[in-house]
Structure formats: C-alpha cells, structure tokens
Design a protein that fits this description.
Layout (H helix, E strand, L loop, with lengths): L1 E5 L6 H11 L3 E6 L11 E2 L8 H17 L2 E5 L19 H8 L3 E6 L7 H7 L13 H19 L5 E4 L12 E2 L21 E5 L4 H4 L1 H12 L4 E5 L5 H8 L4 E3 L9 H8 L4 E3 L11 H6 L3 E2 L5 H9 L5 H15 L2 H13 L11
Parallel strand pairs: 1-2, 1-4, 2-3, 4-5, 5-6, 6-7, 8-9, 8-10, 10-11, 11-12
Helix pairs in contact: 1-13, 2-3, 7-11
Length: 364
C-alpha cells in the first residue's frame, strides 16, 4: 500500500504519523507544497512559500496531478489538496482537481481537519461563550466573516462529501462537519521524549508558547500571570517566533505549561509538554466532549482554566505546587496511552484498508 500525506505539515501531525506507518510496513510519504518557519520535516518540499516561478509552478502541477496515479491512499490536511495553492491566491477553478482525479481513479481519500481550516467563525461565536472567534480575540475575525467562512462552508458542502473518511483534531470541529471522527494528535513521538519532571522546591516556572496570541487568549494569560507575580514568586517564559528545536529546549525548563483559554481543547504543543512530564493548564469546553471517546475523557489530566476566573484558577494550581510532579506523571501516562503514534498509525492503516471500519481507540 502506498500512502501520501500532504500538502502541508501543520503541527507535525502528518510527519510523525507517516513515520509510524512506515514501521508497519506501509510505503508512506509526506510531501508539502511549501514549508513553514516552524521547520517541520517532510520527505519532499515542492517549492518555497508563495514563490511563483515557472519551476515552482511546474513542480506543483507535475506532482499534484501525478500523485493520484502513483498512490493508493491520499491523506490530505488542513482542508487542502496538492492543487490547492492557498499561498498563491484565493480559490481558483483547479483547486482540488487532484482530489477529484483520485476519486475518479478509485483511490481512497482521507482528510484531517485541524482548526481554522473548517471552524466557522460566526457559528463558533454564536454557540460558544469562549472562543477565538469572538470579536477582539483573533485578528482574522473580520476576514473570516467577510470571505473565509463562505469558503469553509463550500469545503464542507462540496469537497468533504467526496472524501472517504474525515478526521478532526479538535472536537469542536465535529459540530460543523457531518460524519467527522475525532482523532487524537499523533504529532509527537511521545515515547522518544525524556521526561523532565516539575521541581516543586523552587519558585514555579510557568510557560506559554502561543503560535497565535489572539486565538490562544495570550493577552489575558500574560496579564493574569503578571498580577500573580506581584503576590507569588514565580518565573514566566513566553516562547514565540523560534524554531521548534529551540522551543522544545525551553519547554524543558517549565514546571507548569499554560496552553490556551479559548479553543476549548488542547493543542499539539500541550501533547509535547505532557510527554515531557509537564502538567498542562487550559480551557476545556464541555459542550464538545461528546465527540471524544468516553475512556479518554475519563483519563484527561488537564488543569482546568476558565477565562472568567483565570487568575483564581492559576492561583489554585500554584497553591498545589507540591503535587505537580504527580500531575506530570499522570500527564505523561495519558499521552503514552492516547497520543502514541504507534497506536494511532495502526488504527489509521486499518481505516486505509477499510474506510468504513470503526476507528477504534479505546483499547488499552
């Protein structure tokens, strides 16, 4: 079986999953139209971001239109296909032409949705008290309401029905995409990460690493931590704009990691921190939990935060600093069970063989 992941590596999910699929004997490749400043790996990068040279366009055309002939399974990400050149322009008639060709040829087509590729901004704001899509949080809200929500709705209505299996990494997204199945992050080789347990016998070290400040609620997080610093001795590390390898080094210094307070679910960064044995604090939206396996919900080790009581929630966590090493052990055990890419790759390969099979995650 030949499997292709692409055309973009968001959060390193396709890279780690494809490596573990290879360990299961699958010829699994990750090819991207362009790389990003995060520096995530791929087997092949077709061009630089937004470079419209003849060489770049030719490479994208040749690969995108030949891939359905050469692979049995095409696993797309972030609402894109190889002929979706979002760094070049707004939607064009040839977008998703490779996906449509794959379906014509009888190939199996999968899509993993990750957040703003399919989250409908106006609907998220209407249904959720706390969300990045409320005005004043994410700077993209005006453009989402003006054009991007319509593009996402078109994706949901016309493209996704052609896909054999749809996965979502954030359970909120399942509210918008009929038939979507929740998929835990497989973005971190969790077993390969050595734990660096919290140190309870020193002033606490808190860390926040937003990829986007507005969507993570970073301003409120920073202000709450600064107020706490006036009462409690602590150190605060803000990680921004650094390559992934440097960011990981900084994560190791933390005792408690603050992920986000708006999205309602934790991100791939939180999985990496928990694999290091760090307790992670974030906002968890109960209305979305129906899409998460029951056993996984029961295991969740997250320190719960609510935007309306953020400072008090953090203060309560600081008051229990002596328990942080145990919280860190619980966090690492959780990701080894629910986010181990070996388990997720095995379930995914079964889905590749039979897209109608149950995507089983609840066995120990």
């Amino acid at each position: 079986m030949r499997v292709l992941h692409g055309p973009i590596n968001v959060g390193n999910q396709p890279w780690v999953l494809s490596r573990y699929e290879r360990l299961l004997g699958i010829q699994s490749d990750l090819v991207v139209n362009y790389s990003t400043w995060f520096g995530y790996q791929a087997d092949r990068c077709l061009s630089d971001y937004a470079v419209r040279s003849a060489r770049a366009i030719t490479a994208r055309l040749r690969f995108g239109l030949s891939a359905p002939w050469r692979y049995h399974v095409l696993h797309y990400y972030f609402g894109r296909s190889f002929m979706t050149w979002d760094d070049y322009s707004a939607p064009m008639p040839w977008w998703f032409s490779d996906l449509k060709l794959a379906k014509f040829l009888g190939r199996k087509v999968f899509m993993t949705l990750q957040g703003c590729d399919v989250r409908l901004s106006a609907r998220s704001a209407a249904r959720n008290t706390f969300t990045p899509c409320q005005a004043g949080h994410c700077q993209s809200v005006p453009s989402c309401r003006a054009t991007l929500d319509a593009q996402r709705q078109h994706l949901i209505n016309t493209i996704l029905p052609q896909v054999d299996r749809i996965f979502v990494l954030n359970p909120e997204l399942a509210h918008y995409v009929p038939g979507a199945v929740f998929l835990p992050y497989a973005s971190v080789d969790v077993e390969a990460i050595e734990p660096i347990w919290p140190k309870p016998d020193r002033p606490a070290v808190l860390l926040h690493a937003p990829s986007d400040e507005g969507s993570k609620g970073s301003r409120a997080i920073i202000e709450a931590v600064e107020r706490l610093r006036q009462r409690v001795p602590l150190k605060f590390i803000l990680v921004q704009g650094v390559p992934h390898a440097e960011a990981r080094r900084l994560y190791g210094q933390a005792d408690l990691v603050i992920d986000q307070i708006l999205a309602g679910w934790y991100g791939g960064f939180a999985v990496e921190a928990m694999a290091m044995g760090k307790p992670v604090a974030c906002y968890m939206r109960e209305a979305d939990m129906q899409h998460v396996p029951k056993a996984m919900r029961a295991d969740l080790p997250l320190v719960r935060l609510t935007p309306a009581t953020l400072e008090a929630d953090l203060a309560a966590a600081l008051a229990r600093q002596a328990a942080w090493p145990q919280w860190g052990r619980q966090a690492r055990a959780f990701v080894l069970r629910w986010h181990h890419p070996r388990r997720l790759a095995a379930a995914m390969v079964q889905a590749y063989r039979d897209p109608q099979s149950r995507f089983h995650l609840e066995s120990t």
